[in-house]
């Protein structure tokens, strides 16, 4: 056991050293700070805010990724603190990796990648997709596998975003498709490839623990979502009052989905009021459904209706869809990303398509040129834009499925994966909270580790 523990720690530290060394070398050769927030030579059609607008958005987006997602991953009381630690590690690596890869598509000028607040916001979005994917496999992969997942997903996420937003000209400012849908189904396909039947006998590691620690993490995660997500979802909206529409619509969706949870959860579970993790799930679902439609809705009641409906669908998903995923499709969804990100992201894309059909000069006014510039210029008709918006949904699901299968196959290779027995020993080295019924360490103290992933 000590020998295996030392090997596990060296494997993680060695991979971190190699990846960080590579990142430093690439930044030294390719990256430079941009003297202009968005030089005219760059493709900034989707990121055309000035620095005064973008700087606070960058701060909110970074706080959202670092704090909210880290706490949202801390769902298992036995592995909560370590899950936060691993989410910080993934965030630190994925942001650097995304800055480089996205720089080649959006911020490449004179042979160098221009780094600024806008590129950091774009990297935060990509990192959010990686963290969503990691939620599907949380507890069943090692920290080394988590890093490899981020290494492989960031290029695919970047390519997917470039195809949708730049080549196809689709509007998805709050990233219903490129973050929520792609991240959720990418992670679910990785989970399917890594399916381990022997883990089903330990169902308490698959279910959400009802302990005090879980609710504490859910409280803070939900609070951060309410504070930072509206700004996070409006970081790439159009000029003028476009960002205000996205912020307000996200808030309206949040409040409606939360109330819907209080309506429906007592009917599905033997509890008079929903637990904090259920309110947290409703908050996530309400924000995800507004990703594409946030800057398109012209009235508040539309956001209230969308949030209310997704607030009803989310608990239904946990009650009925999740058992089907596990028993029939052999997909172990640890954090329920299918119900909190996948389904709301799909519904958000469908809602965005419907709202695109209503995009006329009478409805949008001067904002039509900001939200749908190709339509306003006459280069594309409204039905054509709506058809493209709708067509990106199956394309997203296809790319996420193929990318997830490929990543899962790589993670199954014996070198990074280890045998099931060896992986249990490796995970024991990363626990901070002992498993129920396990013996304490010899010196009577808990062993400290980097992660508690099981």
Q: How would you concisely characterize the structure shown here?
A:
With 454 residues, the chain is an all-alpha fold. The chain is 68% helix and 2% strand. It is built from 17 helices and three strands.
Model description:
This protein is mainly α. The two termini are 16 Å apart. Helix 2 (51-72) runs parallel beside helix 4 (117-137), helix 3 (80-106) packs parallel to helix 5 (143-167) and helix 6 packs parallel to helix 15. The chain has helices at residues 2-30, 51-72, 80-106, 117-137, 143-167, 176-193, 212-233, 242-268, 276-288, 300-327, 337-357, 361-364, 367-371, 373-376, 382-411, 414-417, 420-428, and strands at residues 31-33, 108-109, 112-115. The longest helix is centred in the last third of the chain and has 30 residues, at 382-411. The chain is globular.
Keywords:
about 450 residues; mainly alpha; disordered C terminus
Number of strands: 3
Mean pLDDT: 78
Show unreliable segments. Answer: 39-43, 45-53, 201-212, 415-422, 424-454
Spatial gap, N to C terminus? 16 Å
Which descriptor suits the 3D outline? globular
Helix and strand topology:
Elements: H1 2-30, E1 31-33, H2 51-72, H3 80-106, E2 108-109, E3 112-115, H4 117-137, H5 143-167, H6 176-193, H7 212-233, H8 242-268, H9 276-288, H10 300-327, H11 337-357, H12 361-364, H13 367-371, H14 373-376, H15 382-411, H16 414-417, H17 420-428
Parallel strand pairs: 1-3
Antiparallel strand pairs: 2-3
